[in-house]
Specification:
Layout (H helix, E strand, L loop, with lengths): L18 H19 L4 E2 L2 E2 L1 E4 L4 E4 L2 E3 L4 H22 L2 H5 L2 H17 L2 H9 L4 H26 L5 H9 L5 H21 L1 H7 L2 H4 L10 E4 L1 H4 L24 H4 L20 H13 L6 E4 L1 H6 L3 H6 L4 H22 L4 E7 L6 E3 L3 E12 L5 E8 L5 E2 L4 E4 L4 E11 L6 E11 L5 E10 L2
Antiparallel strand pairs: 1-2, 3-4, 4-5, 6-7, 8-10, 9-10, 10-14, 11-13, 11-15, 12-14, 15-16
């Protein structure tokens, strides 16, 4: 009977130290400092970064965005995609190896596992041993720490959508609402499962990036490479032995590069889609080379062309500026400049015009035709604003209601606006008009189109 699932052995990554390991932990600290700390920052009298879904307002430091500003989210997503394409074309999957949330939380969970169960060999012995009080205590301690980090991560994530101080008080007083509780547990469970148990399976089978990276790679993309010309034929030997006399390459076949790999691959087999470019194998191989008094760089960051043709660093750097990279850079630069210019020139308020459906058009005293509209004025600044409303488009068109509206900081307000027109000023039917709303304290103004109806 054929199984639809491939049998997998549990991977026990060995701890490693070195230059790239320090860079990975620096990125772990940086990303988590931003993620866990940002919701607690204050901006004026509010949370600095808050996506308030209830009030339909997004606060990003001094910027207030409304659902009508969805175009900016689209721009950010386009910039993120182009930046990913550019970075992948230049440096491969280093985003995966250093800053991807899956990698970051897997590093944290592995560190907690090492803290409670010991290093790789100790974990192997512990899992192979029968259940005992010591094993139960270590396993339980690990799970408790994993759950604590997971729930704190879920709590922080929800704190970007619900004011985190209010959420914290609700949590302490056991008064969290059902939706907040659900999402904290949901994201906590996702972190717990992905980083604690699934780990490399997410990178290998669930992440689409691993599948379409080949479309962005070429032979000048920077990847983790094994110098087969220098390393082969591989084989063990003593430190004092002359590899040339033994007809051996620099690789001592210690398999440490496999043991430290978080996805369990052998980098000596060449480029593989499972490689997340974390450089753990580079660090451990350099350590072995130092012990053997061999030059470093048997496993290193390089390109397929550089390894095959023996290029130096200067030639590799020159090949960075190839047509694909230049095209990505130009498009990314243009979109980024366009987005920031749009934000800089953005009008600090928005207006929606809706006709009053209860009264489309009517004749009032003085032989005038009256139309009623409802205007929603949204103040996107952090201070109260006053606005002046005018209308034009037909001769004799006048505003018969209050022409000024006051809106509190970062609030919106609906106002009824009445327009009147002499009966003989225009023929029966629908006529295009414009509302002009101007901020009294600034030169900002918005023009919105509508129609004026004249009955037959």
């Amino acid at each position: 009977m054929a199984s639809l699932y491939q049998a997998q052995k549990k991977i026990y990554p060995r701890s490693v130290s070195g230059l790239f390991s320090r860079w990975r932990w620096a990125m772990v600290l940086l990303t988590q400092l931003v993620f866990y700390g940002l919701p607690w920052l204050e901006w004026g009298q509010r949370q600095a970064v808050l996506f308030d879904l209830g009030l339909k307002r997004f606060y990003i430091f001094g910027l207030v965005l409304y659902p009508q500003d969805f175009i900016y989210l689209t721009g950010i997503l386009v910039i993120s995609a182009l930046a990913l394409f550019l970075f992948t074309a230049v440096a491969g999957r280093q985003w995966c190896g250093y800053a991807c949330p899956q990698t970051v939380y897997t590093e944290i969970f592995l560190w907690l596992e090492k803290l409670t169960e010991g290093d790789r060999s100790a974990r192997l012995r512990l899992d192979a041993s029968p259940m005992s009080l010591n094993k139960l205590a270590r396993k339980t301690g690990k799970q408790v720490l994993w759950l604590a980090v997971s729930l704190w991560t879920g709590f922080t994530f929800v704190g970007y959508f619900t004011p985190i101080k209010e959420l914290g008080l609700s949590f302490v007083n056991l008064g969290m609402g059902p939706w907040e509780t659900f999402w904290v547990c949901f994201y906590g469970f996702a972190t717990y499962g992905n980083a604690g148990f699934m780990r490399e399976q997410v990178c290998k089978y669930m992440c689409p990036y691993a599948r379409f990276q080949s479309a962005m790679f070429d032979k000048d993309t920077l990847i983790v490479t094994y110098d087969a010309a220098r390393g082969e034929p591989r084989g063990s030997r003593s430190r004092k032995a002359d590899p040339k006399a033994l007809n051996l390459g620099s690789c001592v076949d210690c398999t440490l590069c496999v043991q430290v790999c978080p996805t369990g691959i052998d980098i000596r087999k060449g480029l593989q889609y499972e490689c997340i470019s974390c450089a753990a194998c580079i660090d451990v191989c350099d350590t072995v080379m130092d012990k053997m008094s061999y030059p470093r760089g048997l496993i290193r960051y390089s390109t397929q062309n550089a390894v095959a043709q023996g290029w130096g660093h200067a030639k590799v750097l020159r090949r960075v500026f190839r047509p694909r990279v230049l095209v990505y850079t130009a498009i990314l630069g243009a979109v980024t400049i366009g987005l920031f210019l749009s934000l800089a020139l953005r009008t600090p308020f928005k207006v929606d015009v809706i006709r009053d459906r209860a009264s489309l058009a009517r004749i009032v005293g003085g032989g005038k035709i009256e139309n009623v509209y409802r205007l929603q004025v949204m103040n996107a600044t952090e201070s109260p604003q006053s606005y002046r409303i005018t209308a034009y488009g037909l001769p004799g068109l006048v505003l018969a209601s209050e022409g000024r509206v006051d809106v509190d900081a970062a609030q919106s307000r609906w106002v009824a606006v009445t327009l009147q027109l002499p009966y003989e000023a225009a023929s029966p039917g629908s006529h295009a008009i414009n509302f002009e709303i101007e901020a009294i304290d600034s030169s900002a103004r918005v023009t919105e189109k509508s129609v004026f109806l004249i009955p037959r």
